[in-house]
Design brief:
Structural class: alpha/beta
Order of helices and strands: EHEHEHEHEHEHHEHE
Number of domains: 1
Shape: globular
Strand order of the largest sheet: 7-5-6-4-1-2-3-8
CATH architecture: Alpha-Beta Complex
Strand content: 15-25%
Distance between the termini: 24 Å
CATH superfamily: Spore Coat Polysaccharide Biosynthesis Protein SpsA, Chain A
Number of helices: 8
Largest sheet: 8 strands, mixed
Length: 266
């Protein structure tokens, strides 16, 4: 807890058996709620998560990374979280930054805090493939131009959100796939939430998760489409539910498809 605010860390997992324990072991003691949502993994992710004492929720099929995050946020809010940090359980990002990121939100400095691999120039030193680095820089420049923002990157898997952000954004209008990450930040900019960044070292290694080249290309086109939609909506030339206050939010009927089944912690 920080400043009287309950802190949750959510871990959207898929085949994270080999890196989950290292990630969880470095979480600071101030974290009040620790949730893992498993997107129908084929390995022992759920077994390891139970052993580590996490609150575990298991999807009944592989719905996708975006849907996984929706479940993460819904369950964290249901547990009374005031600040929610989304952290990939692949140990690419250091969990030691949770305290700093949560503090910035809990003390009302920012509504959203991103852990940037670009600030400080650590991405390439940490092993980020050169094509991913180039794509990251190009897409970020494109988005800053269309969104009118000045972020160092939009593609980090390590973010902190206030409860207000997660309850007011129309998150259910976003993709079930990886571009969800980009869409939620575009929404934050569109609706005027304050976004801060901290420098975060990263490390790439065989056990860490990484989408392949084909999925990366699909993600890239999704990012461009999101930025274009944002621009068209701002100019009044089109309307998208993703950027409408009437869009579906997390208090809507998310479980209408039976997307997640709660698995109690022993």
């Amino acid at each position: 807890m920080i400043n009287g605010k309950r802190i949750a860390v959510v871990l959207p997992a898929y085949n994270a058996e080999k890196t989950l324990e290292a990630t969880v072991r470095e979480l600071p003691d101030l974290v009040d709620i620790r949730i893992l949502v498993d997107d129908y993994s084929r390995d022992r992710t759920v077994e390891v998560a139970h052993r580590l004492g996490l609150h575990v929720f298991v999807h009944d099929e592989n719905y996708g990374y975006g849907r996984n995050q929706q479940t993460c946020y819904r369950e964290a809010l249901a547990e009374g979280a005031d600040v929610v940090i989304m952290l990939h359980p692949d140990y690419q990002y250091t969990p030691l930054l949770v305290t700093a990121m949560a503090s910035m939100v809990a003390n009302d400095v920012y509504d959203v805090v991103l852990a940037s691999r670009i600030i400080g120039g650590t991405a390439l030193r940490g092993g980020m493939p050169i094509y991913k680095y180039i794509a990251n820089r190009f897409l970020t420049a494109f988005e800053n131009l269309f969104l009118g923002a000045k972020l160092s990157e939009y593609h980090t898997g390590y973010r902190a959100f206030s409860r207000k952000v997660l309850t007011e954004l129309p998150l259910l209008e976003n993709s079930d796939d990886f571009v969800f990450d980009n869409q939620i930040l575009a929404q934050c900019v569109y609706f005027g939430f304050r976004i801060g960044e901290v420098s975060c070292p990263t490390k790439y290694f065989p056990e860490a998760s990484s989408i392949n080249f084909r999925r990366s290309v699909t993600y890239g086109f999704g990012v461009i489409a999101t930025a274009l939609q944002f621009g068209l909506q701002k100019l009044g030339l089109a309307r998208f539910s993703r950027f409408s206050r009437r869009g579906r939010k997390l208090d809507a009927s998310y479980y209408m498809r039976g997307a997640a089944n709660s698995t109690p912690v022993a």
